[in-house]
Every structure is written in C-alpha cells, then in structure tokens.
Design brief:
about 260 residues; alpha+beta; Deoxyribonuclease I, Chain A; 6-stranded mixed sheet; 6 helices; 14 strands; globular; DNA-binding
Length: about 260
DNA sequence: ATGGCTCTCGCGGAGAGA
C-alpha cells in the first residue's frame, strides 16, 4: 500500500496538477491539507474518475483536510475535539486492510510573539490527548506539522533555533507524540539525509535549496515494521506542464499491507 | 528585506501562509 501526505495549497487551484501526480505515483491513500474548499463544494467526481473516493472535512477560504483512497474506508473522525475554533484540521479513516489513517494540518503560529503561537501549542496538546485516547495497533498520523524537528531539517540549521517552527516548546510537543509511540518514517529510513518538504514561493527559495522539512508520515511500530521506502517527492514542487505547484512537496511511503 | 509568491474572496486589495 502506498500512502502519502500533501499540503496542496488550494484544492480547486491544484486539480490538474494533482491529477498528474496521482497518475504518476499511483498512491492508494492520500492525506491532503489546505483544501481551502467547503466540504459541500469538494469535487468528488473528479477524483472518482481517477479511481479514488474522498472523505472530506473542509471549510470556506482556509484550512480543510481530506483523505483520498482507492480502498474501502470508513470515516472515524472529522475535527480535533475541543479545537473547532482553529478550523478544519484533522480527519481520520479506517482503511480496509487494517490501517487507521489520520491527516492533520497543524496551526502555523505565525511568530513566537503572535497571539496564534500559544494557541498552536495548545492545539498540539489537544492532538496528543486525542491521539492517546485511540488504541488501534496500526496507525499513521501524517500531515503538515509546521514544526521543524531538528537543525538538519532546516536550511538555516542551528541559526534558526528559537524562531517560529524551531522553538523548544514546539519541538517538545512533537517529541510528545513520538513518546506516545510514533516514529517519523522518513527519518527512520534516512537518519542523516537532509531533505525538505516545503520551500517559500518567494525569492527563488526552491532553487536556492532554502527549505524546511515539516511534512511527515508518523507511524506506530506495526506501521514502521511494514514500511519499505519513504520518498519526499521534490520533483512535484516544480511546475508540471506549466501548472503551478503547491509550496509543499508530496511525501509518500510504501507499506507491506 | 520592511515577506520579493500564490491562494481565497470577490471585483480591489487585503489576509494568510511558513
């Protein structure tokens, strides 16, 4: 089974681009973030024609998450309990074959001084509490986490420490999820490699190799054991057939499921 | 660099993103 996470920065502006990726990479289950689309305006038919059904938790203008799947799937959760004010940022499905798949779009925080920053930390506390309440043995938590786990994951290295995305308070929240039994699948298979999943649109950041790794596939021990390969698909941060890319690359993993 | 692109909403320019 090939699973993926991708912040697509506007679903309706990215449909033709997504089609190229889906046909090229042939994923089975995809967690999408930043739909910027209301649930009732989701283009189900477009994805049905490509072989997918979609489970959707959207909203107008911002945020929004969805799961595309070729397999049978059942919606388990839409929205992070207690954090509705932060918008549509979590969705969970039980995938046929024994995988519980959750995708999240974690709050940005904007800057350490901004009012959103403590809210981001609280949102993470709610996520950890919600996650702990679950019990499925084979679980994946993926998405745009908006936290850089280590200096290796930031183009600025140690110089970025303390800035938004790079604070010890944020990293403690991410570590808490790991302590609760999750492993970063990419970092597990590539312990020393520097690879980014996001680059700013501005200033030629992609070509200057100025990126961050903030999009992860996290898995329980059973998911880790089943993982054969993990790819950060940076080619799809580039234009395709003249179509504009998201500022995030897709990340996918092949699981023996 | 005091955010240099790209999205949405909605029809002008502002807000958000990371």
């Amino acid at each position: 089974m090939r699973i993926a996470t991708w912040n697509i920065n506007g679903l309706r502006a990215r449909l033709d681009f997504m089609k190229i990726w889906l046909e090229s990479r042939q994923p089975d289950v995809v967690g999408l973030q930043e739909l910027k689309t209301p649930t009732d305006e989701f283009p189900h038919e477009f994805f049905n024609e490509l072989g997918f059904t979609a489970l959707v938790h959207g909203q107008k203008s911002w945020n929004g998450v969805a799961i595309l799947t070729r397999r049978e799937a059942e919606l388990k959760q839409a929205g992070l309990p207690g954090e509705d004010d932060w918008g549509a940022r979590l969705i969970t499905a039980e995938i046929d074959g024994g995988l519980e798949f959750t995708t999240v779009y974690c709050p940005n925080g904007k800057s350490v001084a901004h009012d959103d920053y403590p809210g981001k930390l609280t949102w993470y506390d709610s996520l950890a509490e919600h996650w702990q309440a679950g019990a499925h043995p084979n679980r994946v938590l993926c998405g745009d986490f908006n936290i850089v786990p280590s200096d290796l994951d930031s183009w600025r290295g140690a110089a970025a420490e303390g800035d938004i995305f790079h604070t010890s308070e944020e990293r403690t929240r991410l570590a808490k999820l790991m302590d609760d039994g999750l492993t970063d699948l990419y970092r597990h298979l590539h312990p020393d490699e520097q690879a980014f999943s996001w680059w700013d649109y501005r200033g030629g950041a992609f070509h200057r190799k100025q990126g961050l790794r903030i999009d992860f596939l996290l898995g329980t021990d059973a998911a880790v054991a089943a993982t054969e390969a993990v790819t950060i698909d940076r080619d799809f941060r580039k234009k395709q057939d003249g179509l504009t890319a998201s500022d995030h690359a897709p990340v996918y993993a092949d699981l023996a499921l």
